[in-house]
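Section 5: illustrative case.
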């Protein structure tokens, strides 16, 4: 991937007409999680997502439907502060090869993942088997909005760079690192660094959220949409907490996680 990225600036004046073009075929691999994990790059679609990637300094190239004047005009804003970003013209079939969305693509960006600095992470959202892409994306968005340092995704979670997750984040994942890790190894790592672990669960020993003092550092565990956190994970937490409600007994995983993150945010 690095070799391809170095070649892209020389392709600014080209039009890639064929979906079988080698550059397109190489980039299309990023539609698979395996290649995203291996390379630390991914594809994002749409002007808003590319704008966020550009502002975060993670946009490495833009691929545009060359005959679409509106799409070409929107690029000017995306690269306003980064004129060095290569812009590659593509035919409809070539650009479609890079798209995972049902609607016709007009702008696709090659983006680099946010790098993780473990030493600076002390406010961590940890997701166990959260499978719905919309929930994962919303929780990433809330984590960034409310001051978390990173999001840990267990092996059973929807991939953080799944196109549906990307859209749900609204660009937040360009500013917060995502880490795939076995959940109990992640919990042990937090305890080794004196980071208290909070499990969100309806449990007989749980503490009401309103009774929890705002922690300076934390790891917050949110579980699967239907089953919640596993028993083993709950038992490994330092604290089990629940959100008090006047009616009904449970909340959507993304809503529950967002409420707790709001309550835990710095300076509240």
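Designed sequence:
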């Amino acid at each position: 991937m690095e070799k391809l990225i170095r070649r892209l600036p020389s392709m600014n004046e080209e039009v890639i007409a064929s979906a079988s073009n080698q550059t397109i075929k190489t980039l299309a691999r990023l539609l698979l999680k395996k290649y995203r994990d291996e390379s630390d790059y991914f594809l994002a679609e749409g002007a808003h997502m590319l704008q966020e990637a550009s502002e975060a300094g993670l946009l490495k190239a833009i691929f545009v439907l060359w005959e679409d004047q509106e799409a070409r005009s929107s690029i000017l804003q995306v690269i306003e502060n980064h004129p060095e970003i290569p812009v590659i013209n593509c035919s409809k079939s070539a650009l479609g090869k890079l798209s995972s969305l049902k609607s016709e693509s007009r702008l696709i960006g090659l983006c680099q993942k946010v790098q993780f600095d473990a030493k600076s992470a002390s406010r961590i959202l940890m997701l166990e088997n959260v499978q719905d892409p919309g929930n994962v994306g919303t929780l990433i968005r809330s984590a960034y909005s409310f001051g978390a340092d990173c999001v840990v995704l267990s092996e059973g979670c929807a991939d953080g760079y799944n196109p549906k997750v990307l859209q749900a984040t609204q660009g937040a994942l360009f500013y917060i690192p995502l880490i795939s890790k076995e959940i109990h190894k992640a919990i042990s790592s937090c305890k080794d660094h004196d980071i208290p672990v909070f499990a969100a669960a309806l449990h007989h020993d749980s503490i009401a959220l309103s009774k929890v003092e705002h922690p300076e550092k934390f790891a917050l565990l949110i579980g699967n949409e239907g089953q919640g956190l596993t028993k083993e994970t709950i038992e490994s937490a330092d604290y089990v907490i629940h959100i008090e409600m006047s009616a009904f007994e449970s909340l959507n995983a993304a809503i529950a996680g967002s409420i707790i993150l709001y309550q835990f945010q710095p300076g509240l």
